[in-house]
Amino acid sequence: MQVLLINPNTKTVSYVDIADTKEALQELIGFTSIDSDEIDDNGDRLFFDEDCFIRQQANIGRFKIDSLAPVAGIGVIVNNKDGKTYQSAAVDLEALVKRVSFL
């Protein structure tokens, strides 16, 4: 599937192809404890490290999408409309870039 990777360290948003599994998301984010927030009505969700602010990490960038709470570290946009399966993100790159703020 094609997901959108938000990297606050490089301040980039890009497409990445990964397997449609939770394990592939965990590997891309870099942690097994992942959580998500809905970013729109079409089923797209922001997946991120659930403990991103608890971990003692130096020099980790932060970002936010729209008015969602800030996230530290890597974020991945995946469509998860039914809450069970992972699919390619519905939002396109240009639209998402306009909604992301790097902190």
Radius of gyration: 12 Å
Helix content: 10-25%
Q: Counting H and I runs of at least 4 residues, what is the number of helices?
A: 2
Return residue spans where pLDDT drops below 50 for at least 5 consecutive residues.
none
Strand content: 35-45%
Strands of the largest sheet, in order across it? 2-1-7-4-3
Largest sheet: 5 strands, antiparallel
Calculate the terminal CA-CA distance, rounded to whole Å.
Answer: 28 Å
Number of strands: 8
Number of domains: 1
* Mean pLDDT metric: 93
Note down, in words, how this protein is organized.
With 103 residues, the chain is of the alpha+beta class. It has one domain (2-102). Helices cover 15% and strands 36% of the residues. It is built from two helices and eight strands. The chain has helices spanning 22-29, 93-99, and strands at residues 2-7, 12-17, 34-38, 44-49, 62-65, 71-72, 75-79, 100-102. The longest helix is centred in the first third of the chain and has 8 residues, at 22-29. The termini are far apart. The mean pLDDT is 93.
Descriptive key words:
103 residues, 2 helices, three-stranded antiparallel β-sheet, 15% helix, five-stranded antiparallel β-sheet, alpha+beta
Kindly summarize this structure in a few lines.
The chain is α+β, with helices and mostly antiparallel strands and 103 residues long. The chain has helices at residues 22-29, 93-99, and strands at residues 2-7, 12-17, 34-38, 44-49, 62-65, 71-72, 75-79, 100-102. It contains 2 helices and 8 strands; from the N terminus they run ββαβββββαβ.
